[in-house]
Specification:
Bound molecules: coenzyme A
Shape: globular
Oligomer: single chain
CATH topology of the largest domain: Aminopeptidase
Helix content: 25-40%
Structural class: alpha+beta
Protein name: N-acetyltransferase domain-containing protein
Largest sheet: 7 strands, mixed
Number of domains: 2
Number of strands: 10
InterPro entries: Acyl_CoA_acyltransferase (IPR016181), GNAT_dom (IPR000182)
Order of helices and strands: EHHEEHEHEHEEHEHEE
Organism: Comamonas resistens
CATH architecture of the largest domain: 3-Layer(aba) Sandwich
Distance between the termini: 60 Å
């Protein structure tokens, strides 16, 4: 007999405390098991402790006493993490990073990362620009961010040379739907990262999943209409 599908509507949501460190770290390790460093960055226990001690907030979904999903909202950023110049923002612009998420493999496919993204959007300061990084080969990660209104704004090579999209959602884009009209759009796949990077550097944005598996739909933006 097969086990019934887990029921996400019965999860308990709460902010994690320092005492939840082992649950959080254990779920992180479980969630990335078998994934290559090019797809996801392994985090240290110390980094997680620093988040729980005040560098950020961690929202968790619990089933009975087991943590099955979490998402990090980090406000205390290191200098090398600061996306403001890449996003054309001033130094005064508040920024928060969606700095990691994990869903227990047995609970995947139920929209839990999207729920975690929306919960973090709700608890971030209203004037904050939100950003996240995701490997182009980690499709669930950036697909979920796009579905919540984030756009790919840059392609960087981080953590020892691994490709990472920089995705962002700016405060004015959260308040009203001010999506710029698309003049031109193009879809480029995972094997065309240099072409994607060149367009992003010219101001194009990745706003949707493309038709071909793994591809990104990029659009130009129209300003001043
Ligand atoms: C990323 C992660 C949190 C997403 O978990 P989730 O919320 O259950 O996400 P889902 O499995 O429902 O996938 C989300 C979307 O990606 C799509 N997707 C999932 N796996 C896919 C694959 N192999 N190829 C293409 N699309 C895929 C799903 O179809 C879904 O899109 P849809 O609803 O439009 O169909 C989870 O995979 C995880 O814990 N991964 C390891 C840690 C990690 O990578 N964290 C993020 C970076 S820090």
């Amino acid at each position: 007999m097969t086990n019934p599908a887990p029921d996400a509507s019965r999860l308990q949501w709460r902010l994690l405390q320092e005492a939840d460190l082992q649950s959080m770290y254990g779920l992180h390790l479980l969630s990335i098991a078998g994934m290559a460093a090019q797809a996801v960055k392994p985090e240290t226990r110390e980094f997680m402790l620093s988040l729980l001690q005040g560098r950020g907030r961690v929202i968790g979904a619990w089933h009975e006493d087991a943590l099955v999903a979490y998402g990090v909202l980090q406000h205390d950023l290191l200098e090398h993490d600061d996306p403001r110049s890449l996003l054309g923002l001033t130094a005064a612009q508040p920024v928060c990073k969606l700095a990691g998420a994990a869903v227990d493999p047995g609970w995947r496919g139920q929209g839990l990362q999207r729920a975690l993204i929306r919960r973090r959007m709700d608890c971030a300061p209203r004037d904050a620009a939100l950003f996240a990084t995701a490997a182009p080969c980690n499709l669930p990660s950036w697909h979920n961010l796009l579905a919540c209104g984030f756009a790919v704004r840059a392609l960087q090579y981080l953590y020892g040379g691994h490709a990472r999209y920089l995705l962002a959602l700016l405060p004015q884009e959260q308040a009203v739907s001010l999506r710029p009209e698309a003049e031109v759009c193009v879809e480029l796949d995972n094997g065309e990262l240099p072409q994607q990077q060149a367009l992003l550097m010219q101001g194009w944005r990745g706003t949707a999943v493309g038709m071909a598996a793994g591809s990104l739909r990029l659009v130009t933006t129209v300003k001043g209409r």
